[in-house]
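haha ok so turns out i had the wrong file open the whole time. this is the CORRECT one, sorry everyone. sequence first:
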Amino acid sequence: MTAATGPRELAHPPRDDIRLEGVLHALSDPMRLRVVRELAAADAEVPCSHVELPVSKSTTTHHFRVLRECGVIRQTYRGTAKMNGLRRDDLDALFPGLLDAVLAAAREQTARRTTP
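then structure:
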């Protein structure tokens, strides 16, 4: 994990340190998968407040931290906002097709649940 260099910088793992088991663990939680789906749909960096989860603020913070520490997202401060974006380039380089497959499967699962 690269150390934060300043008080407002967050540590992120370098691309070569991102592990498949960590990514799969991060994506196995429904709330974290929801975050990833929303970030993928936004196709841009968004503040944490853009992603509404039905859990407490501290639990939301935990989910974002797990995603960051596993290398799924990058978080940066812009003023007082913590901006979030998928590390799609890194994930696609390390695990080609994985993110797209997970997102497609999540869409299909949602469609099955909402179709009578």
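The two ends are 45 Å apart (CA to CA).
again sry for the mixup
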